[in-house]
Each structure stands twice: as C-alpha cells, then as structure tokens.
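Reading a protein record of the kind used here takes only a little practice. Each token is a code from a learned vocabulary of local backbone shapes. With that in mind, consider the following protein and its fold in token form:
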Amino acid sequence: MASNKEMLSKVNYSMDIVKRIKANEPFTQAEKEKILTDFVGMSEDNNSYFTPFEICEFIYKLLDIKNGKVADLSAGIGNMVKPMIKTYGELEGNVEVDLYEYDENNSVASEMAWSDFAQVNTYGSFDSIDRNDEIGEYDFIIGNPPFSGSVPYWCQWNHAKNGKAKKNNICDAFVDLAIRKTKDKGYIALVLPYGHLYKGNATEKLREWMKDEVALKGIFPLDSNTFKQAGLSGTSVSTVLCVWQKGVKQDKVFFGELDDKDELTKELDALAYHFHLFNSEYYDISYASDHVCGLCAYMEEVGT
C-alpha cells in the first residue's frame, strides 16, 4: 500500500502531465516514455487500476501477437501495448493497435505517450459501451475492463421484455462487446474479477450465451496482490485472466495457476510456453499443474 507521501507524488505528477498536455507544451521522448511508467488514473470512479507490465507481457506471449489488428476497449494509458514495443516509435511485427479510453485524463496522457507510434491509434474520451457501433472488428481484443458499476447495454442474453436495453454489469458488457467485435477465429484475453467464473444472475446468462460464441482456451487465476500497487492506493480484488477463441468448437481448457510468486516472470514464461504446447497440433497434454516455478504434465506426441 502506498504511503500518503507516495500517493501525493503520483497525483502531483499526473496532474502536472495533464496540465502540460492541455497547455500544448512540447514533450521529449524521455518524458513520453515516462508517462507509461509513472502516470496513474486519478478519478475515483473510473476503475483506473492499470495492469502491471508482467501481466500485459504474459498476455502478449500467450496470444503470440505478431500480425493483425488489436484493440483494448478500456485502455487506460495503453499498458497492454508496452510489451509489443520493438524500439521507440515501432511495434513488433505487422500489427496495428486501437486504444479506446473513456476517462479524459487517461485519454490525453495516452495520446501523448503513443504520439510517435504510427501503429497505435488512440481514441480518447470514447465510451466504448455507448458508441459500440463505431468500433470495427479485430483479430485480438485484450484488456482489463472496469469491474464495478452498471450501464445501459443491449445484449442478446439479458435485455428488457420489450426488447430494449437494460442495465447490465459493466464488466459483463465489456465481455459481450469484446466477443461481438472479435473476428471469426480471433482471440480475446481479458483480466476479469474472479466472480466471472461462478457468479449467478446475469453473469450466468452471459456464460451460457458465450458457449455458442467462443471456446474457452485458458484460465489463469491471478494472485490477490497482482494489483496491490495499481492506481493510487492499489486493490486486493481477486482476478483471473481468461482466454477465448471465437467461432471454434469447445475442447479442453488449459488451467494455469501461479505457484511461486517470487519467480513471477519465470513462471509466467513457463505457463505461456506450456499453453502453446497445449494448443499445438503436435502434442496432447492430458493434465497440467504448476509446481515450484514449473509445470507438471502428462504429455504425449500426437500420433505416437
């Protein structure tokens, strides 16, 4: 948990950045890069718990994003893009990324931070839920949508009896939107509250609807400390990273739980590697679990 002095320093830095941008002051490359490491969401109601770099990098490796169109529908300042950077001003591979963000302060910070990257498009002060008809289709949709609150949103699985939109949990709405905006055979990777896996009512209706739309490919429970340094004061909410593929038949699901929190990077790399083996056409993994920064699995080569 950040001290009051640390919190004040974060707020002052972020407020100063926004003021400078709005005053059209010039920014150096170093100052733009610093935004992506030091800027924090300041609004109390915008769920600005930016995803730690290690988790963003994990998503990038899981999906092996090298080509195609990518979107984050609630992007904050664009943390999900950081692992894709090849060199300043250029992303790895042949990718194009669209960042949609609702909060005004996050939006201006994101626009400045990515202003020298031709492959990154920022859509600031953009309400993805309300303006969803303006959003195109993507090969990959990644992100960490807001967890709390409700919004008017029409969805097939939960609308009013008269056919009109009704208020839905904002996180459920973002999951639905991500699925609708992903191309056939495309991938979705979202950090969600753990309750997405078991909550009843509308969320249960969403999960039932999803069975005909996407195949669940991987479940990765994240530690309750994952977001302890996020935002101004952090949060201990339990989260889970879910990976789906659209328009394919449901098959086995990879479950990868973190074990050694002191070797987080190594363990995430191991999980990503085994996830690729699990989904390859060369191997059949019947069982997998993590153990002391590694994975134990019964794996046999296909055709043997």
Summary: The radius of gyration is 19 Å. Confidence is low (pLDDT under 50) at residues 290-295. The first strand starts at residue 67 and ends at 72.
